[in-house]
Design brief:
Blueprint: E1 11-14, E2 21-24, H1 29-41, H2 44-58, H3 70-84, E3 88-94, E4 102-108, E5 113-115, E6 123-127, E7 130-134, H4 139-142, H5 149-158, E8 160-164, E9 169-171, H6 177-185, H7 189-201, E10 204-212, E11 219-225
């Protein structure tokens, strides 16, 4: 005789990037095991792989995590996590006034928003009618991110959607890799900073909190950004 099937609650969220509606369910024991195993492994790649699988499963296969802008991915996972384990999460933060004292604060994950910057623009005008259309970084690009110059260059390069001038528009898929490298490397510092500003101002999952240092009595504001800040 077959065992009964347990029903899961369904919820709906709105993708920050395009306003699309997505149905999701809380993650189950099988997904929680994936996450715990990934956290035990301790590598970022294992954790990202687990998050991808959880999002895929919990959105009823309706979203491809690889195709989401990274801030969408962070927002979706936090919403799933809030409905799965609880909306309140306790995290450790360092008090900014002395840079040493750690305090525990409680965050309501359901209140976390994806914040837009009014200065954000995906069109980079380089002058003389030449410009670049950028696209948001996706998971495959962000996994290559690092602190060195080559990693930063590759992330920026990976987010080029098209390059145009007064006569033509060239899509990324039609570009020669070496020509693209040469094009970016021939930019002035100011032009490259314009490209970098696309990333600085793009939407971010963030929340501002106030913490009080128990040793000094000083209250400080801290901005938590990105999925990792809320765990």
């Amino acid at each position: 005789m077959a065992l009964p099937k347990l029903a899961s609650a369904k919820y709906e969220l709105t993708l920050p990037s395009n306003g699309g509606k997505v149905e999701f369910r809380p993650f189950l024991v099988k997904e929680e095991k994936l996450l715990l195993m990934a956290q035990s492994a301790g590598t970022e790649k294992d954790q990202i792989r687990a998050i991808k699988d959880i999002i895929h499963n919990c959105t009823f296969d309706s979203i491809d995590a690889n195709a989401l802008p990274f801030f969408d991915l962070e927002y979706v996972f936090l919403q799933i996590r809030a409905k799965s384990i609880g909306e309140k999460a306790k995290i450790q933060v360092t008090c900014p006034d002395d840079g040493e004292t750690k305090v525990e604060v409680e965050i309501n994950l359901a209140e976390i928003k994806c914040v837009n910057n009014v200065e954000h623009n995906d069109k980079i005008e380089l002058g003389d009618g030449i410009g670049i259309m950028m696209k948001y970084p996706q998971l495959d690009v962000m996994t290559k991110a690092g602190d060195d110059a080559d990693s930063a260059f590759n992330v920026i390069k990976g987010c080029v959607a098209s390059i145009y001038d007064n006569e033509n528009v060239t899509d990324r898929k039609d570009m020669d890799e070496k020509e693209l490298d040469t094009f970016i490397e021939s930019m002035t510092h100011q032009q490259f900073e314009q490209m970098n500003n696309f990333f600085v101002t793009m939407p971010r999952v963030k929340k501002e909190i106030t913490v009080k240092n128990p040793n000094t009595g000083v209250e400080s504001k801290i901005v938590l950004e990105g999925m990792a800040s809320f765990f």
